[in-house]
UniProtKB/TrEMBL annotation, chain A:
Annotated catalysed reactions: (2R,3S)-3-isopropylmalate = (2S)-2-isopropylmalate
PANTHER family: 3-ISOPROPYLMALATE DEHYDRATASE SMALL SUBUNIT, 3-ISOPROPYLMALATE DEHYDRATASE SMALL SUBUNIT 2-RELATED-RELATED
Species annotation: Algoriphagus aestuariicola
Pathway assigned to this chain's UniProt record: Amino-acid biosynthesis; L-leucine biosynthesis; L-leucine from 3-methyl-2-oxobutanoate: step 2/4
Pfam families tied to this protein: Aconitase_C
Subunit: Heterodimer of LeuC and LeuD.
Keyword hit for Transmembrane: no
Name the UniProt record assigns to this protein: 3-isopropylmalate dehydratase
EC number: 4.2.1.33
Function: Catalyzes the isomerization between 2-isopropylmalate and 3-isopropylmalate, via the formation of 2-isopropylmaleate.
Family of the protein in this entry: Belongs to the LeuD family. LeuD type 1 subfamily.
Keywords assigned by UniProt, alphabetized: Amino-acid biosynthesis, Branched-chain amino acid biosynthesis, Leucine biosynthesis, Lyase
Superkingdom of origin organism: Bacteria
Gene that encodes it: leuD
TrEMBL record, chain B:
Pathway assigned to this chain's UniProt record: Amino-acid biosynthesis; L-leucine biosynthesis; L-leucine from 3-methyl-2-oxobutanoate: step 2/4
Keywords recorded for this protein, A-Z: 4Fe-4S, Amino-acid biosynthesis, Branched-chain amino acid biosynthesis, Iron, Iron-sulfur, Leucine biosynthesis, Lyase, Metal-binding
Name of the protein in question: 3-isopropylmalate dehydratase large subunit
Chain's role: Catalyzes the isomerization between 2-isopropylmalate and 3-isopropylmalate, via the formation of 2-isopropylmaleate.
Subunit organization: Heterodimer of LeuC and LeuD.
Cofactor names: [4Fe-4S] cluster
The organism's place on the tree of life at top rank: Bacteria
UniProt KW Metal-binding keyword: yes
Molecular function terms from GO: 3-isopropylmalate dehydratase activity
Coiled-coil positions: none
Listed EC numbers: 4.2.1.33
Family: Belongs to the aconitase/IPM isomerase family. LeuC type 1 subfamily.
Organism: Algoriphagus aestuariicola
Length: 196, 468
């Protein structure tokens, strides 16, 4: 379905430097039993966020009120494992609109782009700078400009450009999704299918 | 003529259109759906007021959340029941073939596809499940997709995909005694790492791969995603054709001959290039087991857990966090550690050969007292065969509990959960934190190693218990 348009986002960020965060951590399988897309944010990082009795774990970053914002800065190989789009729904539903990492798992990245959460891949060095800056000052602001394909640490002005293909960029900026595109080429697909 | 890979041949022949500076519009031959990742896709179709374009290209089965006991009764868990009922409703509404609970071909989607002969060489196959890569064993391009893409396939039979890079992993030579295809793939992932093949599609090649049965090949391709690869495939050969011949959906008569003639062309040309290549010697591979919380954290069963030497920063922190969860220390050996549960099942190792190999080795023995042993066939067909071959009796005599088909404790969406803190050795595919239940600790291994663990009650090299 059409989603929020994404152009420029300027906000504080939540740091999660742990590497290899798999989608089972983002949203454990036992919370996938829904037939609708809303409400997954409550269980985002469920087993890191809450103990078995449901009490918040103090040492987990989402329970630390120092950190907040629409940007999640994550460790290397974020979103590995299961293809569950619920992981991105949970991230979106919680309030994040952009995930920054030095390395994303493939399917997770596609899933982000398909629902309008912008995945921004930065160098490992820039990711380290972001973690250091956010930890030093949780109110530090980051600007992500999709039109310019640029991420900037506003306090220091340090920036880095990021890749996204023109087609996906256009989709994100306009809130279009792939189905809109595919439905418009129905006759070409029919002809292709008939030839098989 | 340009030299191309097997992957190129299949990919390129399925591109409806290449979007300039964008992805390919990629045509999907077969689409598998299950109860967990499809309901929102159907809901969105309704919201858009559109239907399913080619219903005969989609096949459904409920597998992820289903109970593995009393499948003839109404599902007790309300949310699971709703998802399964939604799947039934959607299949009925749109005319999609459903292999429902209790029917002859119910089972894990990646087990029944091959069993029915739906999976064939040269096809493009997707499913809202990352282990769709299993079907690559037949020389198909098969990979997992998200729910938005499930919706795209239902609505248009296409998805928008950028072509991945190509990797070839060759394993040459003879496997040693007690070494199985699960050990091969755990070995490869331990070398390449859990993210090492991200952005790639893998072709597995070499004599050690060619000598494997179809089921063993499926185990390898199944875990391609565990090193980050989009999928993995193996060139079809006589082993593939013999497996498919006579299957319900396989071509028959003259069509069969034509199909085989075409399938024989599906191979990588000599001299074709890959973006990355790895070569391994089968003789170097020993029974493997994981010790951490991603499948790349694997060692020989007789090996020791790597120390933190050379690690720093978040890499070291993440490593220690993982070992802390497992209750293990850097440098220690895993052999002899006491185990609480064993699980034989899943789309990785829930097929008849897996159950046979466990049964063969526990025959006349008894599981250790400290072990709870679950065996969950991948499908009704596997279950039926296990009964017919007398394997169930052998396993029950050895103290194993046989359950009904489903994904079960692999992801613990149903009641098959390993209790918090308990250590399980499992034939499944993921050892993530809490994967088999909140707080559960998982070590991945082959069915053979799991059989050895079941009998001894501790981490054991199968070659020590079963010398031949």
């Amino acid at each position: 379905m059409a989603y929020d348009k994404f152009t420029v986002l300027r906000d504080t960020a939540v740091p999660l430097p742990t590497e290899n965060v798999d989608t089972d951590q983002i949203i454990p399988a036992r919370f996938l039993k829904a037939t609708e897309r809303e409400g997954f944010g409550d269980n985002l990082f469920r087993d890191w966020r809450y103990d078995v009795e449901g009490n918040p774990k103090k040492d987990f970053v989402l329970n630390d009120t120092t950190y907040f914002g629409k940007i999640l800065v994550a460790g290397k190989n974020f979103g590995s494992g299961s293809s569950r789009e619920h992981a991105v729904w949970a991230i979106y539903d919680y309030g994040f609109r952009c995930v920054v990492s030095s390395f994303f798992a493939d399917i997770f990245k596609n899933n982000c782009l398909n629902i309008g959460v912008l995945p921004v891949t930065v160098s490992a060095e820039f990711a380290d700078k972001l973690f250091a800056a956010i930890t030093a000052d949780p109110k530090t602001e980051i600007e992500i400009s999709l039109p310019e394909q640029k991420i900037t640490l506003l306090a220091t002005g340090e920036s880095e450009s990021f890749d996204i293909n023109e087609y996906k960029k256009d989709n994100m900026q306009n809130g279009f999704d792939d189905i809109d595109y595919l439905l418009n080429m129905s006759s070409e697909i029919d002809a292709f299918a008939a030839s098989r | 003529m340009e030299k191309t890979t097997l992957f190129d041949k299949i990919w390129d022949s399925h591109v409806v259109k290449s979007v300039p500076a964008g992805p390919d519009v990629f045509f999907i031959d077969k689409h598998f759906i299950h109860e967990v990742t499809s309901p929102v896709a159907f809901l969105n179709l309704e919201k858009r007021g559109i239907g399913v374009k080619y219903p005969h290209r989609t096949i459904a089965t409920p597998d992820h959340n289903v109970p593995t006991v009393d499948q003839d009764q109404t599902i007790k868990d309300k949310l699971s029941r709703m998802q399964v009922e939604k799947l039934r409703e959607n299949c009925k509404k749109y005319g999609i073939e459903l292999h429902d609970l209790g029917s002859a071909h119910h089972g894990i989607v990646h087990v029944i596809g091959p069993e029915l002969g739906v999976t064939q060489p040269g096809m493009t196959i997707v499913c809202g499940d990352s282990h769709t890569s299993t079907h690559g064993a037949f020389g198909a391009i098969a990979f997992g997709i998200g729910t938005s893409e499930v919706e795209m396939v239902l609505a248009t039979q296409c998805i928008m995909q950028s072509k991945p890079k190509k990797m070839r992993i060759s394993v040459e030579g003879e496997l040693g005694n007690g070494v199985t295809s699960k050990d091969i793939i755990l070995y490869i992932i331990s070398k390449i790492s859990a993210a090492g093949a991200t952005g790639y599609f893998v072709e597995y090649a070499g004599s050690a791969i060619r000598n494997l049965s179809m089921e063993a090949r499926m185990t390898i391709c199944n875990m391609s995603i565990e090193m980050g690869a989009r999928g993995g495939l193996i060139a079809p050969d006589d082993t593939t054709f013999n497996y498919l011949k006579g299957k319900q959906y396989a071509p028959a008569g003259e069509e069969w001959n034509q199909a085989v003639a075409h399938w024989k062309t599906l191979r990588t040309d000599d001299g074709a290039t890959f973006d990355k290549e790895y070569h391994y010697d089968a003789a170097d591979i020993e029974p493997m087991i994981t010790y951490g919380t991603n499948p790349g954290m694997g060692i020989k069963v007789v090996g020791s857990i790597p120390t933190t030497e050379g690690m720093e920063g978040s890499n070291k922190t993440s490593y220690l966090k993982s070992l802390d969860y497992m209750g293990f220390a850097p440098g220690e050996s895993v052999k002899g550690k006491q185990v609480d549960y064993v699980f034989v099942g899943s789309c990785t190792n829930g097929r008849i050969e897996d159950i046979r190999s466990v049964a063969e080795f526990v025959k006349g023995k008894r599981k250790a007292d400290n072990i709870t042993a679950w065996i969950v066939p991948g499908s009704r067909e596997v279950e039926k065969q296990a009964y017919e071959e007398g394997l169930v009796k052998i396993l029950e005599d050895a103290g194993f509990e046989l359950r009904q088909p489903g994904c079960s404790a692999c992801l613990a969406m149903n009641d098959d959960k390993i209790p918090s803190g308990k250590l399980a050795v499992s034939t499944s595919n993921r050892n993530f934190e809490g994967r088999q239940g909140p707080g559960a600790r998982t070590m991945l291994a082959s069915p053979l190693t799991v059989a050895a663990v079941a009998v001894t009650g501790m981490i054991t090299d199968p070659r020590e218990v079963f010398p031949n």
